Amino acid sequence: xxxxxMLPHQIRHAITENWPVVLPLGVLEYHGEHMGVxxxxxxVIKVLERLEDELKLMILPPFxxxxxxxxxxxxxxxxxxxxxxxxxxxxxxxxxxxxxxxxFRNIHFFIHHQSENFAVGMPTDLSFKAAARQVIFxxxxxxxxxxxxxxxxxxxxYAQQATGDDPFNWIKGHPMLTAEMIKQYPxxxxxxxxxxxxxxxxxxVVEMDKLSDERxxxxxxxxxxxxxxxxxxxxxxxxxxxxxxxxx
Length: 248
Description:
Low-confidence stretches: none
Mean pLDDT: 94
Number of domains: 1
CATH superfamily: Creatininase
Distance between the termini: 21 Å
């Protein structure tokens, strides 16, 4: 369900059943002359929408204003919007704190932008990961008091982790394409992989007649097809089912 359309009784029901509440996280960034600047966020939104009913997801309004960077092209006339970590981390902390106060304990964010480096981290996902950890530590200290981890009732802490009953799992971040998936599907910037995904999921943001060979990173887009894109979508859907605790 779209969170902004939910009524309070529906939210309370979702909390009781511990439904996943999911944030589509991304950027607005130049993706060549042939593709929309929202590609990185749109792929997250569109895949989540396909699984919305199946997985009983609550989908938060998407956040487009991550750290796009100007590494690909300068923003002038090209559309990239850069919001840095000094703004992102406090925003994410306030958002996660609010979600915990509502009652959610199954919070996730998914990101595609720069996620080939997700294990190491890039500015947007690192900001949200750091905020999640800070918020959970602060929440636990407020709820349980200082020294909460060292108290006798926490003697089975590691056993709790093994069974999945771990407060540090209340908020999780995920890439749309894992390292293993990237071995099976091309990860690129505005090339064959990303263009194919948009041809499948959101063809209205692709104009192949605008494609130029001037930029090296878009040349492979000439081989893009919706068929290839749907193969990538299938991989993503399987990954999301597993990440959200509902494997096929």
